[in-house]
Amino acid sequence: SVQHHTDAYNTSNLVVRRGQPFLLQLTLSRELRAADKLSLHFSIGEKPMEPTGTLMSLNPRSTRNVSGWQISMVKSSGTECTLSVTSAPNAAVGIYGLIVKTGPNVYKPEKNTIYLLFNPWCEGDIVFLSNEAERKEYVLNDTGYIYVGSAFNIHSKPWNFGQFEELILDACMYLLDKSKLKMSSRRDPVVVSRAMSALVNANDDSGVVLGNWSGKYENGTSPMAWIGSVAILQQYYKTKKPVSYGQCWVFSGVLTTVMRCLGIPARSVSNFNSAHDTDENLRVDVYLNEKGEKLKWMSSDSVWNFHVWNDVWMKRKDLPSGFDGWQAIDATPQEQSQGIFQCGPCPVKAVKDGDVYLPYDSKFVYAEVNADKVYWRVTEENGRNKYTKLGVESQSIGANISTKAVGQNRREDITWQYKFPEGSSEERASMKRAVSYLQPSGMTPRAHFAAVPMDVSLRNVGDKDTVQNEVVPKSGVQVEITNEKPLYPGNPIEVVITVKSTVAGSWTVDLASSCQLQSYTGKVHANLGHIKQTVKVEGQSEVHVPLKIMPDAYMKALATVDDEEHVQVTAIAEIQGTPEKLTKEVSLSFEYPPIQVQMPETAQLNKDFTCAFIFKNKLNVPLDNCKLMVEGLGIFKMATFDEGDIQPGRIIKSEVICTPTRVGEKKIVARLTSNQVKDISVEKGIMVTH
């Protein structure tokens, strides 16, 4: 199993990869003679039959190739005989049964089940990945990061994929059975990855994770609290019922686990400023009132701070040439594809080139990384809403597309794999191509939110601004938003809006700016405060306008939702005497005191050591209802400590006795959640030797 890179699976059964030889040893009652008949029968599925390639009867003395499978006698001495079996590189993936026939006698070995997986090490397998470092990362690494936060402030969330842990392989085999795919379809990673993108969410098929974005998670586990996929898949396999609750990073983390477990190279990918619910002209509409506050009832989930999906690696024999390699799949239930909540695989190259007619769901993925953002101000006139267009941002959507770097604990920016550089001629050509495929049929509005309220018909919005370049303001006035100090819960939020003039002349600017608390999906939870001010800028000068929110104004709101909140600051600047209007928004994340991990740097296999987790509440507010979740794959099972309320200045310490069961570089991950602070994470590595 070392040659097959399957030695890490926590199972007593044989686990092998397709297209690669494995050895079987037979002990016979007497020496094998020339006239003896000996054959091995491998079968999969409910009705194994030779013509469908689900039953292979292999005779070591015949060189006949059965459905691409081969067998040969390696050695035979006395009653011992060693056989080498090579499955077809396109064999169906799943659990095979083995029986041995000697003439009329049938022998069923005690351990007669063999798990057959995809093989990225085999050139004949369409998931073949030539680079060993990439195979180590995308198939064998059982820990990693999922990137969250906002484009201004990217956080790495440690995540334990845990594809080798107890019951995970069985859970994946259960999902394969549950997918009801024909055995012939189980040969194809395109079909398998699409089916798994549907099964990882609970919609349609009682799949693994139930999504919940309501901010209320009492009757389940908060999406913020999970430390990895293991507890989720184990619970699912034991109960066969969806696990509560997940949001996009949970769906992505579990899908990475399932793909890596089955042998398909996979990675979790985060897209910052991800467009959701765009209508068919690649546009997201953001509605603001005159204070510059986003309107809760209108901007339904239009731009998410980030969204996480997956890339899987495979050749696309079902498409014209040129689309092999990374394919995007997404298990977060956002939009139905062919009647089911599933998404992909969509060639990343097709997104980059604008070939959005290619299956599967390429229009959807294209819009997530390429839509334009249009700001509208909504005012009331004579009892009717009036919509004023404030501006178009054509470059903010689809920023900092991120995944964990190969072989290193750092973020890699893969935006270039999805998009040409903004403003380049290739990008314009790609956009033109995409729009030509999108316009005629039109994209159906996503999910159950329409991007434009029903009383605004799309006609008065005008079609000519589908691909509209930024108008360069004549005045040269620019707006920037910065936070002077890091944001710590319990301290004032202090933001500065800078209005600067870059060319000669004198301008009077009406500024409206607001501060709101919102979840990563753009859902506004609370309006915290706003300012309206008129400022003058002359020549090359700048004016700083402070916006300060006291803790009393936001701490209560922070504790009423179970989501990780971001501070959204929006500014509208109107230059008097001109039609120019500028809009700027920034999403800021809170910062938290760290968890410290105390443990030795190295450990020995099966020798206990102690690991201590220490946390000091350096904030000036108590953290209520604290829970600490800790997990170390190959070291100790996940444990949860109820820490109660932690007052300011108080220190807590929790200890775990660890027993390493696997050698190599291992990681311990801890996550603290509370009513006020939803996610403080830490990880620490340890080298385990024999």
Descriptive notes:
There is one protein chain. The chain has 690 residues and is mainly beta. It folds into 4 domains: 2-117, Immunoglobulin-like (Sandwich); 132-437, Coagulation Factor XIII, Chain A, domain 2, CATH 3.90.260; 477-589, Immunoglobulin-like (Sandwich); 595-688, Sandwich (Immunoglobulin-like), CATH 2.60.40.10. The strands form 11 sheets. Strands 1, 3, 4, 7, 8 and 9 form a 6-stranded mixed β-sheet that branches. Helix 2 (168-178) packs across helix 4 (230-239). The chain is globular and about 105 Å long. It starts with 13 loop residues before the first strand and ends with a strand.
Distance between the termini: 19 Å
Give the helix tally.
Answer: 10
- Radius of gyration from CA coordinates: 29 Å
**CATH domain class name of the largest domain:** Alpha Beta
Looking at this structure, what is the CATH superfamily of the largest domain? Transglutaminase-like
**Do you know the CATH topology of the largest domain?**
Coagulation Factor XIII, Chain A, domain 2
CATH hierarchy: architecture of the largest domain = Alpha-Beta Complex
* Chain-averaged pLDDT: 91
Q: What fraction, in percent, of the residue positions are helical? A: 10-25%
Shape: globular
Catalytic activity: L-glutaminyl-[protein] + L-lysyl-[protein] = [protein]-L-lysyl-N(6)-5-L-glutamyl-[protein] + NH4(+)
Protein name: Protein-glutamine gamma-glutamyltransferase 4
Family: Belongs to the transglutaminase superfamily. Transglutaminase family.
Cofactor: Ca(2+)
